[in-house]
Design goal:
- The protein is of the alpha/beta class.
- The chain has one domain: Rossmann fold.
- The radius of gyration is 19 Å and the shape is globular.
- The two termini are 35 Å apart.
């Protein structure tokens, strides 16, 4: 049983959003087989006042010009450190802690535990929004609110049905799975 108080999204809360792009995007591809729908995620922040939206991705990882245009259209900023983007995310969150009521971290890295503890010690509520399969239980328990992303937060995911059973064969091609290869339900 979860003893945490439910998180209310109050319109006067000042929110900072910190996106661990590699974590959230690779986890989305691995566990949900699709690209993260950032627009929908931001819509779920509600009527809270978003102070800053920061996206962290190392400079050696590619970002399309279309994404840059899209992200800036959302009011977001992109940080491109040479490596170890998590360090830059932590520094920005610590620097902004006294100006925020809530820090939302998109990503479930266990490495963010000390950041969560620090933010809470400064009176800043912490929320982790991430794919559950890629999020440490310790992180889920440490934050004030854990928001699990599901298939509806994948681009085109509104139409997707939850996965049931093994993945289909022929993914990425026009071939359908061979019905003759289905397992025999009477066989143990």
């Amino acid at each position: 049983m979860d003893n945490k108080p439910s998180s209310q999204k109050l319109c006067f809360q000042k929110v900072g959003i910190f996106v661990d792009a590699e974590n959230i995007e690779l986890s989305g591809l691995k566990h949900m087989e699709g690209y993260t729908n950032y627009k929908k995620i931001l819509d779920h922040v509600g009527d809270r006042e978003i102070i800053r939206i920061l996206y962290y991705k190392p400079e050696y990882k590619e970002i399309s010009s279309d994404f840059v245009t899209f992200w800036k259209g959302l009011g977001g900023e992109i940080r491109r450190p040479a490596k170890n983007a998590d360090t830059f995310l932590v520094i920005d969150a610590v620097t902004m802690a006294d100006k925020l009521d809530v820090a939302i971290i998109l990503g479930g890295d266990k490495d963010f535990l000390p950041l969560v503890w620090y933010l809470k010690s400064r009176g800043c509520r912490t929320e982790i929004w991430s794919w559950p399969q890629a999020t440490s239980q310790e992180v889920k328990e440490a934050v004030d609110q854990y928001f699990p992303l599901d298939e509806s937060f994948v681009l085109g995911g509104e139409e997707k049905k939850p996965k049931k059973g093994p993945p289909r064969r022929g993914r990425g091609t026009n071939k359908k799975a061979d019905p003759s290869k289905k397992p025999d339900p009477n066989r143990s």
